[in-house]
Amino acid sequence: MWKELGKKKENKLFDVDMLIIDEISMIDAVKFDIILEKINIIDKYRDKPLQIIICGDVLQLPPVDSISGYFFNAHHFDKFTKNAYKCRLTEVKRQDNKEFVEMLQRIRIGTYTDEDLIYIKKMKKNLVNKDDAVFLCAKNKDVDEINKEYYSLNLNEEHIFKKEITLSKKYIMDGLILAM
Description:
The chain is of the alpha+beta class.
């Protein structure tokens, strides 16, 4: 199948110069190895290698349904990063309160203080209208409890909507579907 993909110059995979994978932390090592293997095969039939940009924060979202751990445990990861340009974003753009940003950073890396926890608990108590709040939860059980509470308040009739998705072109590669 892959040799056939290489022979078809009209294949859209050859028109793509760059693949961007956002939230890379959600991809486990096995899936990342599959992606890299397929790109290596495709690159053999291209004039220039496909450029890959990965971005994400491993301290935010873990891999989905992982049995192999994070993407950086992939067998091909060292080869992939050998000549890679690495860029670390360090400036927070969505928050002006420097002390709050520093506290969130401590919580993010697990070095928070008792004062940080007290501050967070005060923020919870100071909510004026709980209905206007956005809830950030560390555990699915907390999310389930909040959802159950709000679902119980909804007295509307339940509606189920179904949508059929039709892709104009699709390429199935060992379980991966690339849509162009």
